[in-house]
């Protein structure tokens, strides 16, 4: 089994992952005690995380516990910085980085955003698995998960699950 | 029970209902003998159809059998034209038309597009039911079902169904 690169992300029915000002409060509508929508099971299959620099900064600014445990984290940035613990700052070629990671042994690789980084990965057809949770809302406007300007990519539906709060989670492979 | 206004439409996972040139050949990927994805059952609940003028012209140009039987069809147009059989050309106020139709007795009302007409209806918060089929493909670019610039609208998931060809159909009410 090769290492797969996947995304695991929620969007509104109209395709937004946040409002224009990064507001993600629409996600609270589906919060439910004891229901993590498969996240803890998913993250167990992961030992490397890809993040865009802005998303990395946002996580730091949120003041929450570091969400990736001791997993290796690769932050894509135009400004090279020395590594820091498990965090590696990468300013090189993205397809090369992914190709290197996929050639190494390990669990799967998770791109946790942002939309710009996911777009770059889709542009290079590097994403193998997509777990998309659709929140029962039309946000009306905001930051799109899929911003357009890509080549067509056929997907295979592996699984679909619906939840009490109206969230529908679909798992596709490329 | 009041008459409901609904849409019943397919889009790619990235939210497109057609490519930029109106190409909808991605729908053939989910064509299957004997499987109509609930359409014939849905259309039985309908006795009035709303169409944008461009969509109406497109249907005529396709040279197919008239798809709405003897249902009343309301074509939204800026250029008034005399009625023709069951087809009424409407150049007045859209919310007023819908309000009039909803106040009349009858089965439900179906807006069969295009995206611009659906957008206008969403803008006025006039759509009561959304049946959205997600085709397992990233089209990459094209005509969006939800083009943005709307107010937030919470939805309630009523049903979700997946099919052999990987289509996922979700039924929401406003």
Give structural notes.
2 copies of one chain form a homodimer. Helices cover 20% and strands 33% of the residues of chain A. The first copy, chain A, is an alpha/beta fold and 174 residues long. In chain A, a hairpin with a 5-residue loop joins strand 11 and strand 12 (168-173). Strand 10 of chain A pairs antiparallel with strand 8 of chain B, so a sheet runs across the interface.
- Annotated CATH architecture of chain A: 3-Layer(aba) Sandwich
User: Order of strands in the sheet with the most strands of chain A?
Assistant: 5-4-3-6-1-7-12-11
> Helix share of residues of chain A?
10-25%
CATH fold topology of chain A? Dihydrofolate Reductase, subunit A
- Any idea of the CATH class of chain A? Alpha Beta
Say what oligomer this is. Answer: homodimer
Number of distinct helices of chain A: 4
Strand content of chain A: 25-35%
Overall pLDDT level of chain A: 95
Instruction: Tell me the count of domains of chain A.
Output: 1
Total E-strand runs of chain A: 12
Most extensive protein-chain contact, per-chain counts: A-B, 36 and 36 residues
Can you summarize the main beta sheet of chain A?
A: 8 strands, mixed
Give helix and strand order of chain A, one letter per element, not per position: EEHEHEEHEHEEEEEE
Distance between the termini of chain A: 15 Å
């Amino acid at each position: 089994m090769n290492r797969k690169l996947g995304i695991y992300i929620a969007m509104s029915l109209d395709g937004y992952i946040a409002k224009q000002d990064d507001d993600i409060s629409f996600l609270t509508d589906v919060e439910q005690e004891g229901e993590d929508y498969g996240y803890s099971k998913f993250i167990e299959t992961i030992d490397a995380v890809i993040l865009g620099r802005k998303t990395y900064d946002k996580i730091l600014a949120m003041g929450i516990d570091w969400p990736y445990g001791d997993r290796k984290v690769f932050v894509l940035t135009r400004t090279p910085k020395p590594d820091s613990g498990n965090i590696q700052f990468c300013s090189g070629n993205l397809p090369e980085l992914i190709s290197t990671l996929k050639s190494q042994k390990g669990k799967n690789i998770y791109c946790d955003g942002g939309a710009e980084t996911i777009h770059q990965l889709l542009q290079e057809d590097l994403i193998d698995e997509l777990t998309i949770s659709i929140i029962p809302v039309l946000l009306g406007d905001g930051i799109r998960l899929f911003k357009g300007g890509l080549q067509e990519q056929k997907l295979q539906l592996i699984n679909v699950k619906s939840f009490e709060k109206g969230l529908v989670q679909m798992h596709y492979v490329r």
